[in-house]
Structure formats: structure tokens, C-alpha cells
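Sample intake sheet
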Amino acid sequence: MVRNAYADSPRRLGIIYNAQSGRHRRRWGHHPLPTDVPAIEANTVDEIRAAVAELAARNIGLLAIAGGDGTVQCVLGELLIRQVFDALPHIALIPTGSTNMTANDAGFVDVRHDGWQPLCDWAAGKHPARLRERDVLRVTPADGSAPVAGMFFGAGAVHHAVEHTQKRLHSVGLRGEVGPALAFLRFIKSVITGDRRHFAPTPMTAHDDQAHRLSGDTLLIVVSTLHRLVLRFNPFWGRENAPMRWTAISHGAPRLFWRLPAVVRGKAPFAADTSENSGYTSHNSRTLELDFDGGYIVDGEFFTHRRGDGPLRLSVAGRITFVGLS
């Protein structure tokens, strides 16, 4: 739900910016940072964590993040997993990354044209903004390492596609949605030709809190709380009243090439057959456990899961309010 609203009370603004994000200079424009607002440059995970802790100590009520999905993902972990703030701040995203999937869905602030003043005005209760609430995923590894917060999880072909985009396409300057579009075309070509070099199936088992189960060779699985993914894809058609949406496509799913246009628009690829054996599974859940060997991504950051460690658990870490002025 989107609502236009003024700040419920004056909120102190703080800024974290990643000067090494994909399009920092072009997205920043010619508007300098406000001199009366605490602004911290943070380019590494440790620097981001330190910056969040410092702004929490200053009782920041509106946290602006200038960076890409990886920077946002790290900050969300500090807010919802480590819980360094006594009260969660509202979040304003300034999209300076390569893809910016979270900002394109949850809303963002465009500082290229009007600078930082409109955001400062909203914090002071002088300007309305579009407020969107989004649930945030909690991904808990089975090996005992720390949980990760984020907005998007992907494994199988999705992991390979993001890896290809970051290593091969971003490195030659193809940023924004150009890289994902080319990776998607590469996926289509592999489906047509049966080429398994880049999108080999992943043996996987999955079950959620509503007794939905999946087992077998899986081409891809995506899980998200966003309403719109990269390229405006919305590949979810589950009907359950739960915040975490997930879709899996089995290896050998019938007529995949012809049914992909419906899948990416959130349309069930079968008019009547909705059985688990159709090869196309989509549900909304509160928890989801996955067991497989291989890599996965959370908001463009790479991780690895080993089946021998036990199931990887996905749930909801909490809810964030995003402030949009664009």
C-alpha cells in the first residue's frame, strides 16, 4: 500500500553513502550533501556497520542510503537482525547502484534535480512523501553463520544469471536493467538449445509452514517480499495470505519457453492444472526451508549452502517504511 503523508513528527536525518557503488557520480548530480546533516561515507561491510551504529547513537529517525542493493541489504541486516536502533527509522533510498531493484519497488529519492532539500523538508514535516511498507526477508544459514536480511533471494539459474551479469556485463559498463535483460536472453537461449553449461538443474527439497512441498531437480527458485522485481517481473501467483512470495520451476517443466511470458507477469502457466507436479510452483508463506548444494544470492550478494549442514531457513525479519520523493 502507498500513502502520501507528512512526517508524523520531526525526524532527524542521517545519511550513509557508498562512494564505490556502480553509478555514484552520475546519480549524485551537482548537489552537495547538506552541511547540517550527519553524512558518513561507508564502502565496506565493516564501514557500513560502524556508520549505522553511529547514526543509531545520534537518534536518527530518517536514514538515507545512497548506494545499491548490496548496501541496502547490509543496512537492513543492522536494523532488523542486529537491531542497533531502539526504534526503527524510516528509510529513504538514493539509488546509486548498478541495478537498484529494492529502490525501484519500494520508492526512492531523486537528488539529481532537486538536491537534498525536499528530503530535509519531509523530515521537518514540511513536505509530503509517498510511504511504502515492505516486509524484509531473514535468511538463516544452517552452518551457524549469522542470518542475513534482504528483499530478494534466488538460487539455481537466478544465481548463475546474477553472477554472469556482475562479472561479465557490469565490468564493461552495462548497468541498470540492460545487464539483467541480456542475462535473461541468455537464459532463454539456454532453454531453447538445452544448453546446461550455465543453467544446470539443482537437486532441491523445499517445504513451507503451510505444508507445501517440493522435491527434485529445480531450474530456479525465487523468493521475495517486493512487489516488482528487475525488468518489472512479478513471477508470483500464490493466493495464500502470507508476506513471503516464492516461485520454483522444475527442470523439464513442460513448454517452458512458451509459458515464461505468463510466469514473469505472475500468471499461473496452467488454466486448470495447479498440481505440484506441473513443474511450476508458486505460493505465499511465512517460513520456507530449502535444502540443496550450491550458491544463492540475497540482493545481489553471493552465498553458498551445503546440504549436509541442514536446511536453509527463510522467514520475515520485520517491516520497514520507505520514503519516496520521485
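Comment: The mean pLDDT is 87. The domain at 152-298 is CATH 2.60.200 (Tumour Suppressor Smad4).
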